[in-house]
Amino acid sequence: MAAAFDSENLAALAAYLRSHVADFPGTIAVEKFKGGQSNPTYLVKAGDKSYVLRRKPQGVLLPSAHAVDREYRVITALEKTAVPVAKTYALCLDDAVIGTAFYIMDYVPGRIFWDPSLPGMNPLQRAAIFAEMNRVISALHSVDVQAVALADYGRPGNYIARQVARWSKQYQASETEKIVAMDKLIDWLPEHIPGGEETSLVHGDFRIDNLIFHPSEAKILAVLDWELSTLGHPLADFAYHCLAWRLAPGQFRGLLGHDLAALGIPCEADYVAAYCQRTGREGVVKQHWEFYLIYNLFRLAAILQGVMARAVQGNAASSDALAAGRRARPLAEEAWRQVERIERIIG
Question: What predicted TM-score, i.e. pTM, was given to this entire model?
């Protein structure tokens, strides 16, 4: 982690936290976490306590992006559900304090796994980690949004159509070079959206490195990075999580090419079946599963194009933003190859 705040911002932050967080100690130290491409995240130490601060990036931002107030709302709402989250303390929308809006939550110590193949573990340990991920995303998609006051957290209905339109617009607003595959996907996706609607709370970025695991047990202690959460289609959210099975390690923390059986990691079909059993969706997924995967490759490419644009503009959230942004093109091209494969099968 690297130093982050100047003395003026640090003093303003300390004053704010003393007045908004119960029993907040005096002197603070702030360090930025490495990794992450969106909302910059910091460790705040005060006395013997540790907190996490999430803020908007500085500079010109795309409309509706980096909504830390939504993150704060959903994490706070989920504190009494089966979905593990960090305890929240305060949301500050006053840019005058540190330059951008931010919120404060508990620091949750534990393990974050950056490689889904889980090197160093035995097959039983890996199987337990994947079973726990499956359990938690199933719990998320089973949350009663009325009961946790999130019924207005997004618009019900036409989720995929709205998301395709949104990410098409976001991609076009952040375009730094011509990606033909993205233009093709922007035309193809709206014409092939599956019928039928389901609505649940969705995370939007549920992957292994956005989860904090217990230091020694296969137990998730907190789900992180709720920036893209909303009310949406649970199968679209789950398909994004399952992109790991379709992508290589160098593309997006993928599993493609690994001997999953030897590692103790379930194959895609078994993992999907476990989710369907937990959520009561047996038989619902199969017909349109490939569409949801293509949609998520497109969406991920659009997100990474936004990362590229911020890097070019000089207000990236991390030092490896440019490398991450360059993955937009191969992901879009992989999505279009899957479209062509489906059309060959159908045609």
Answer: 0.88
